[in-house]
Design a protein that fits this description.
With about 290 residues, the chain is mostly helical. It contains 11 helices and no strands. Helix content is about 85%, strand content about 0%.
């Protein structure tokens, strides 16, 4: 899994947001100036611009979070094997060098860079500090700090590293448990958006559209006009647009909430935003605008 640097994520976000803004701006220019007959309405083009703006950052954020989870998943195994190497009489630095030759997934390149820094004359503490900055996860920072303290204090490295391994293992277990428990809450958001879309579509097709048809085709008496005269064909289009906008707003907010609740990061909600906006967009395209 690739590592995506924060600088790269910023450039991806800037580029995609710029492209999305251009699409949105073009739709507004067409609405007020050009007035060309396009396949999509202006607000539909705005949502297309939103999807263009969200898609690349959502992908990069998803890949980066997979990389970070790979780092956290391998740290307990790294500490356990460093402690086991200590039983054979190896020093802490030598145990780290031996561990760097093993496969720890996305942790391996960062570990090799740590060993390279030490071989170039950097202190273990400084190398661990740089390692924590590159890894970027809380578990990596805690592990680097604890290993640096072990190296500074000396003593029975094997016993201390075993205690560090147990502590980090417990922290990793707590994080996994929290992730497992909170992940189903994202499904609640999807259900809420689905219920909202279903209600909107049923109201439009079974209620508002029927009233508009009765008004324009059947009911001509003054008494009927008083009962059903509140919704015309133009009003029906306005209702469709208002409900479409409401569904998009709920999709965006619900997606961000789903990411924050399930993975404790607002950026993790971008993929949920993209999926929910796509569901809302195509639901209206299939069951509302094409009818």
């Amino acid at each position: 899994m690739p590592k995506i640097e924060p600088r790269e994520k910023r450039w991806v976000a800037i580029t995609s947001v710029s492209l999305g803004f251009l699409v949105a701006f073009a739709s507004l220019v067409n609405l007020f100036v050009l007035r060309m007959n396009l396949p999509l309405d202006w607000d539909q083009l705005l949502i297309v611009g939103l999807m263009i703006a969200v898609f690349p950052p959502a992908v990069t954020e998803y890949l980066d979070m997979r990389w970070e989870r790979g780092i956290d998943r391998n740290i307990p195994r790294l500490l356990r094997e460093i402690a086991e190497s200590g039983r054979t009489g190896l020093t802490l630095v030598r145990a780290i060098e031996v561990s760097a030759a093993r496969d720890y997934g996305p942790l391996t390149p960062e570990l090799k860079r740590l060993v390279a820094q030490i071989s170039w004359g950097s202190s273990l503490e400084d190398s661990l500090h740089d390692f924590a900055k590159r890894a970027r996860t809380k578990l990596a920072r805690r592990s680097a700090t604890l290993i640096a303290e072990v190296a500074r204090s000396g003593g029975d490295i094997q016993e201390v590293m075993e205690q560090v391994n147990r502590h980090i293992g417990e922290l990793a277990s707590i994080d996994r448990e929290r992730y497992t428990q909170m992940r189903p809450y994202a499904f609640v958001v999807y259900v809420a958006v689905g219920v909202f879309l279903f209600t909107d579509i049923m109201m439009i097709q079974s209620f508002f559209a029927q009233i508009a048809q009765l008004q324009t085709k059947v009911l001509q008496t003054s008494s009927a006009r008083g009962i059903f005269g509140g919704i015309s064909a133009a009003d029906l289009q306005l209702l469709k647009r208002a409900l479409f906008h409401a569904s998009i707003i709920q999709s965006v907010i619900g997606g961000l909430v789903a990411g924050k609740m399930s993975e404790a990061k607002l950026g993790a909600g971008l993929k949920h935003v993209l999926i929910l906006v796509l569901i809302s967009f195509f639901s209206f395209m299939i069951w509302v605008w094409s009818v």
